[in-house]
Amino acid sequence: MNRRQSDHLMMIIISLTILIIILTYFIEINSVVHGQGVITTKDNAQLISLSKGGTIQDIYVAEGDTVKKGELLAKVVNLDLQKEYQRYRTQKGYLDKDVNEISFILDKENESGLITLDGTRSLSNKEVKANIELVHSQIRAKELKKTSLDSEISGLQEKLSSKEKELALLAEEINILSPLVKKGISPYTNFLNKKQAYIKVKSEINDIESSITLKKDDIELVVNDIEALNNELRLSLSKIISKNLQELEVVNST
Length: 254
Hints:
Blueprint: H1 3-26, E1 32-33, E2 39-42, E3 45-48, E4 54-59, E5 74-77, H2 79-107, H3 126-183, H4 188-253
Antiparallel strand pairs: 1-4, 2-3, 4-5
Organism: Salmonella enterica
Protein name: Cation transporter
Keywords: Coiled coil, Membrane, Transmembrane, Transmembrane helix
């Protein structure tokens, strides 16, 4: 190889070297990196390891720059991370909405302290909505039973009032007949009939009073059932809110 050829070869090598340097400067960095997300000192240099792998899209620092904690050094694109972040955002939105809607329902109660169906139409959580509607239908059935028992008691009380008046009238007649029978003015059979009628009406009154007592006991049981259903529903909704808040805490810390 003569000197001219040697110089020509050297020129080609230098040109290729310059071209590689230029291409390295202008071509966008597009390499996949993996790391542990820590900064270590080695040979008087700060080595940055990423917590997640990804494709470097932009670099905002150069060798020798001084950086501060929290400063953006580079932009790394990771589709898996983006999908995970979007999933967290979606989950957070769902949990926030669920907590707000269920809290509104818990705060919305009638004069008896029972959870109503107000707000359930727009409830996003269909499972919770179905559960509330189911419990509400059960409570409604209990309330109808209580209304029926109240009506029966009202009818029995009217009957009782009538029987008590009848009993008072019989007692008055017996008091009038008693001295007349003793004097022989009135026959004893008439007095005896009144006495038997009095005993019969008195027994009927006792039966009516017993029926009223039993129905009042039934009403108390129904009321307790209604309160138990409402409290169970309230506890169930409160647990859902508590669970959602715990999940939100995890999502927010991610």
